[in-house]
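thoughts on my protein:
***
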Amino acid sequence: MASQQDPTDNNWKKSSYSAANGDCVEMATAGSSVVAVRDSKDPAGPVLRFSATSWSSFIKSAHLGEFPEV
């Protein structure tokens, strides 16, 4: 999903459960309706953008264990 707003470097967040080596997924908001996701190993690399509704649904499903093989 494209967005006119890009997240700034200071609002990227990663899980407190991530390892010290930094290999993890980071997320940031880009406006009120877009969530951006990137690989922490390559902060200048590609950024995936999801609607806030889709991201919320994904997180809820993950918490419910709907992706056991991941």
